[in-house]
Amino acid sequence: MAATTTLFSNTLLKTTNQSFTRVLSHPSPLLNLSFSPTPSHCKKLRVSPPRQTHIIASALSGSPGIESTVGSEEDTPNLLDRVEVFDLNGNGIPISDLWKDRKAVIAFARHFGCVFCRKRADYLASKKDIFDANGVALILIGPGNIDQAKAFSEQTNFKGEVYADPIHSSYEALRFVSGVTTTFTQRAGVKIIQLYMEGYRQDWKLSFQKDTVSRGGWQQGGIIVAGPGKTNISYIHKDKEAGDDPDIEDILKACCS
User: Fold this and answer.
1) Residue 216 · residue 143 · CB < 8 Å
2) Is 237 helix (H, G, I), strand (E, B) or coil?
3) Which residues are registered as beta bridge partners of 66?
4) Residue 196: predicted pLDDT
5) Cα distance between residue 140 and residue 9, in whole Å
6) Average pLDDT over residues 51-71
7) Where are the beta strands (DSSP E) in 111-156?
8) pTM score, whole prediction
9) Higher model confidence: residue 39 or residue 96?
């Protein structure tokens, strides 16, 4: 997928600069993107000097995604304890209550219209019999409103629980990446073609609703294994780009071994 430096849009594109824990032998700089002044119909993308990223090793997964142990981000459980998500009936629930009394696999979607997230839902649901046999709950959280969460649940017939995070607070607490360069990658482009050939489709109506468009649709997600206990997070996978699913065996090892 060729990169382009000119975007025709009236929407301001944003990226967030954060520190990540990467499974890499050498630092990989995160690009900081900004726009140069141009006419309103045409905005040019410039690349400013990269910021340093922090590197540690993790044995949790062989996925190319951004991985960390809880020890690398010690404040994450405390930040999550202040996050509230909403079930399909509109009830607010502290997110850490979802795994306070049980073990759970929690998938974080890019957004509720995302084609990659529909594949992720099936990918995890295919192992639900193993999760159930081990007393592990299967949960999906998406950045968006309750109506979007309901639509996703109905369209996908997801076998687990679905929750909405309207203000993206769980994504910020977990420091999931967001940005144009994490969304439009060559690997993501190839995977989209594969998913469409498999019959998956993006829900463009959901994708262009205000809750998604206001963030540009550039948010990436991840997967965690947590509980029982509010601060017991045993596995974190952070997608480094759209469609960056970890090896399912890593998740099963973390939750069911």
Assistant:
1) no
2) strand
3) 238
4) 85
5) 31
6) 37
7) 136-142
8) 0.68
9) 96
